Amino acid sequence: MQPFFYLRQSVIFLILILIVNLSNAGWLESAKEWKEKDVLPVASNLIKKDHLVLLPYGVASILLTATQDDYIRSDMKNNQQIEPEISKVGDLLGTGAGSLIVIGSQWVFDSDESITRSHIRGFVWSGFSIYLLKTLFNRKRPGDSRNYQSFPSGHTTISFMTASQIHQAYGLNYGIPAYLVASFVGATRLADDAHWSSDVVAGALLGLLIGQSTYYDSSKIPTEIESQNNQSKSIFLPSIKTMGDSANVQLTWIKSLN
Question: CA angle at residue 136 from 133 to 140, to 5 degrees?
Answer without folding.
Answer: 90
